[in-house]
């Protein structure tokens, strides 16, 4: 149960920070820095408890890599989804009355953007937080947070920079993304998580 509580807390603060820095008079162009930073600190806070996934695509990748038990996968994803929805509702309460206009996504560019940086994120997680060669390192949280920050700066204007099915749900609840577009996020992100796990196995053949 402690793993699921940690996954709820970490995902909550990630989505909450996304909402507070983007909706209304938020952090403006510095929003990706805040989002990457909160992910970094939450990864450091929860890595020893749950592995600090905070992202169903990461849970998929870690499971395919063999570092998450099948019986735990539903609990992880449910905790992440609930954390995202509660965070989105908290943002809506705090930012009540603020007009929110959903992004108008171009399907193929958004799919590619979400796939590429979700792949990068899951691949970085697998290599810095689960690999034998980097076991016990002190930089994994920084690497993971900076991957999200870099992706948000790079393609945030194209796809919204979710790189996370739970974040995609959260921004849809907040109205930052249109509900009909949620399939773009989920297809790209889950596919990227699976491909990243395969890429990890291909580049780390002796790491089981």
What does this protein look like?
- There is one protein chain.
- The protein has helices at 2-22, 31-50, 56-65, 73-94, 107-130, 140-159, 165-174, 182-203.
- By secondary structure, the chain is mostly helical.
- The protein has eight helices and no strands.
- The chain has one domain (2-203): Up-down Bundle (Glycerol uptake facilitator protein).
- The model has no long low-confidence stretch (mean pLDDT 97).
- It is globular and about 55 Å long.
Domain unit count: 1
How does the helix and strand content classify structurally? mainly alpha
Over the alpha carbons, how many angstroms does the gyration radius reach? 16 Å
Query: What is the helix tally?
Result: 8
Strand content: under 5%
Largest sheet, in brief, is: none
Topology:
Layout: H1 2-22, H2 31-50, H3 56-65, H4 73-94, H5 107-130, H6 140-159, H7 165-174, H8 182-203
Helix pairs in contact: 1-2, 1-4, 1-7, 2-6, 3-4, 3-5, 3-8, 4-7, 5-6, 5-8, 7-8
Compose a concise summary of this entry:
This protein is an all-alpha fold and 208 residues long.
Spell out the key features of this protein.
Glycerol uptake facilitator protein; single chain; mainly alpha; 208 residues
């Amino acid at each position: 149960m402690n793993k699921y509580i940690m996954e709820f807390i970490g995902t909550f603060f990630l989505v909450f920070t996304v909402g507070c820095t983007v909706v209304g008079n938020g952090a403006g162009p510095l929003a990706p820095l805040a989002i990457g930073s909160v992910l970094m600190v939450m990864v450091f806070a929860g890595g020893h408890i749950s592995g600090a996934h905070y992202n169903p695509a990461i849970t998929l990748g870690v499971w395919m890599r063999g570092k998450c038990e099948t019986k735990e996968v539903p609990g992880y994803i449910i905790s992440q989804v609930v954390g995202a929805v509660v965070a989105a509702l908290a943002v809506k309460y705090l930012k009540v009355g603020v007009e929110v206009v959903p992004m108008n996504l171009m399907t193929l560019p958004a799919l590619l953007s979400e796939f590429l940086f979700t792949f990068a994120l899951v691949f970085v997680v697998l290599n810095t937080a689960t690999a034998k060669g980097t076991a016990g390192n002190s930089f994994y949280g920084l690497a993971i947070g900076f991957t999200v920050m870099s992706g948000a700066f790079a393609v945030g204007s194209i796809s919204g920079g979710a790189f996370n099915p739970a974040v995609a749900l959260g921004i849809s609840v907040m109205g930052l993304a249109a509900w009909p577009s949620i399939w773009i996020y989920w297809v790209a992100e889950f596919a990227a998580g699976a491909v990243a796990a395969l890429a990890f196995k291909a580049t780390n053949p002796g790491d089981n």
